[in-house]
Write a structure and sequence with these properties.
This protein is of the alpha+beta class. It has one domain. It contains eight helices and 16 strands. The strands form four sheets. Strands 1, 2, 5, 6, 7, 12, 13, 14, 15 and 16 form a ten-stranded mixed beta sheet that branches. A two-stranded antiparallel ribbon has the order 3-4. Strands 8-9 form a two-stranded parallel ribbon. A hairpin with a 5-residue loop joins strand 10 and strand 11. Helix 2 packs across helix 7. The radius of gyration is 20 Å and the shape is globular.
């Protein structure tokens, strides 16, 4: 199976965060030809990264009135919490960072598969297809609606861009109702990959969330063998994080030094069992332009 296997897509799925930090403390960073962060935003990004390692990725709710407009009506997803990722070349990281924030946390795609994540299904809202009425019919309890997304953005009467398709977005979704559905269908072990925000009692994190514009409903712990990449917003944040003993301990808690005897019977082209020993690639946003 693994012999001569060449993947068509990137092996890394990236979650981007920090748009709120840029908006409050460094909103003009794209004006310069560098991702240099000022003193305040450096501290904020450093703190954000440490909290992600300690507590996980935030999952926030979609809006109750959110709908996807189509030519023949609207598709309305049920209420859920979600975390979004993108599949991209590193050379394109800067454009995504300008949209979503400059800190990228990357995983191998099995991280998403283990949490019933999936790529978005993009469709052309200006044409007919099987994902639109009258050919498509469903009810509001169908969570696969959460993975539908228009691929285009109409800027004016003559300009149509495939803006959203270029994001190559993946999602992990969750809710209390999804939790019950998983239990009912014998997939309860999947729920162990999610944490209810209300179950976190650490004052440090609660205070941090109280000072944010929004709060997570759930969190996805990143202490996982498939945690594979860190894209720092700047080299300043990178060297500070690499020098921090707490961050080192957090990564060492789920990425361990390689032991040769572990791998004696592992097929050469199937390195999955080595992932617990595979420390994440660490790179800064400016360096991504070289790939």
């Amino acid at each position: 199976m693994y012999q001569n296997y060449i993947p068509v897509h990137s092996d890394f799925i990236i979650h981007w965060t920090g748009k709120d930090i840029d908006k409050d403390y460094d909103k003009n960073w794209t004006v310069n030809n560098t991702s240099f962060t000022n003193k305040i935003s450096t501290e904020k990004y450093f703190q954000r990264f440490k909290h992600i390692l300690k507590y996980g990725l935030w999952m926030t709710d979609n809006k109750s009135d959110e709908s996807i407009k189509t030519r023949n009506g609207e598709i309305k997803p049920p209420i859920h919490s979600r975390t979004c990722f993108t599949e991209l070349k590193l050379s394109m990281a800067r454009s995504h960072a300008s949209e979503f924030g400059r800190l990228g946390i990357g995983f191998k795609r099995f991280f998403l598969f283990n949490r019933i994540g999936a790529p978005m299904i993009y469709f052309n809202e200006n044409g007919r297809n099987w994902l639109q009425p009258p050919l498509f019919c469903s009810n509001e309890d169908d969570y696969y609606k959460c993975f539908f997304k228009s691929m285009t953005l109409r800027e004016d009467d003559t300009t149509l861009r495939y803006k959203y398709f270029d994001e190559s977005e993946w999602r992990i979704i969750y809710s209390n109702n999804i939790k019950n559905i998983l239990e009912k269908n014998g997939l309860g072990e999947t729920n162990s990959h999610f944490i209810n925000f209300e179950d976190i009692k650490e004052k440090e994190f609660i205070d941090y969330c109280n000072n944010s514009r929004i709060k997570p409903k759930f969190l996805i712990p990143v202490k996982d063998r498939w945690f594979a990449m860190i894209i720092y917003p700047s080299i300043e944040v990178k060297v500070r994080a690499q020098s921090d003993s707490e961050i080192k301990d957090l990564i060492n808690s789920f990425k361990k030094p390689y032991a040769s005897e572990i791998n004696k019977n592992v097929p050469v082209r199937n390195p999955a069992s080595l992932e617990p020993y595979n420390y994440p690639i660490e790179i800064d946003l400016d360096t991504c332009r070289n790939f």
